[in-house]
Inverse folding.
């Protein structure tokens, strides 16, 4: 097999039980300008990339979270340092579940959102 698209991730979805509370959590943690969108079959909250033609979008949707961190992990870009983001996660009601991990392109840690969804929060170099 030789299939190699520019991006394997087309978009990502995070299931949440309370859109308003989850939107507030993700705004607090990522400082993203999230937008509600009700043009599809159900309402979603959009994380829009800087360039929608080349970036990968993410959205929150009303769904059934894994609830215990056992679902897939979505890694999100964060402003500032990983340690600052750890404090924002806890202040916003989430949970930090790992220390900071260094890799060549940056640093990240694992956390859980309000519904127990596994998230990685990434500080690029």
């Amino acid at each position: 097999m030789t299939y190699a698209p520019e991006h394997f991730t087309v978009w990502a979805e995070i299931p949440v039980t309370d859109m308003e509370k989850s939107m507030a959590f993700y705004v607090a943690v990522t400082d993203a300008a999230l937008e509600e969108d009700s043009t599809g079959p159900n309402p979603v909250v959009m994380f829009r990339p800087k360039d929608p033609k080349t970036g990968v979008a993410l959205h929150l949707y009303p769904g059934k979270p894994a609830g215990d961190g056992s679902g897939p992990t979505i890694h999100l870009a964060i402003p500032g340092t990983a340690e600052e983001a750890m404090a924002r996660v806890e202040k916003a009601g989430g949970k930090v579940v790992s220390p900071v991990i260094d890799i060549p392109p940056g640093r990240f840690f694992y956390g859980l959102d309000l519904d127990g969804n596994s998230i990685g929060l990434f500080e690029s170099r």
